[in-house]
Amino acid sequence: MHRLHTQIMAVGGSRMQTQQARVDAICSEVDASQAAITKATVAIKTNGRNLKKCSEKIASLEGELTDTECKREEAKAQMSALEDEAKEVMEKQEKSKVSAVSVCMY
Fold it and tell me: Which residues, in sequence order, are CB contacts of 20 under 8 Å at separation 6+?
């Protein structure tokens, strides 16, 4: 088979060889283009999966953020209540000191 191909090429001469070189070059370009298309297709699919994962992660983090904000507000309210209670205790203690001093003076 190879010998027959060589004989055909020899009969056609340089013109045939020039055309064959062009065909070979075009075949190489087609192969390279197909490889690039395959690579791009794989990249598109991979990026699509990554996008889906990222979207799910964003939704999850937004939910966590909402929960954290609620907990923060609750903690803030508790802290405010504790500060108010501490203030009342300090005021009562101050009144007790004033009363104790008043009793001692009499």
Answer: 9
Cα angle 24, 29, 31 (rounded to 5 degrees) comes to: 95
Q: Cα–Cα–Cα angle for 49, 55, 59, nearest 5°?
A: 145
Cα gap 50→56, rounded to integer Å: 10
- Provide the 8-state DSSP code for 1: -
Q: Collapse the DSSP code of 106 into the 3-class scheme (helix H, G, I; strand E, B; otherwise coil) and give the result.
A: coil
- CB-based contact 9:16 (threshold 8 Å): yes
Instruction: Of 33, 32, 5, 34, give the one whose Cα is nearest residue 20.
Output: 5
CB contact at 8 A, 11 and 22: no
Torsion of CA 68, 72, 78, 84, to 10 degrees: 180
Span 25-45, pLDDT tens digits: 999 999 999 999 999 999 999
What is the reported pTM? 0.53
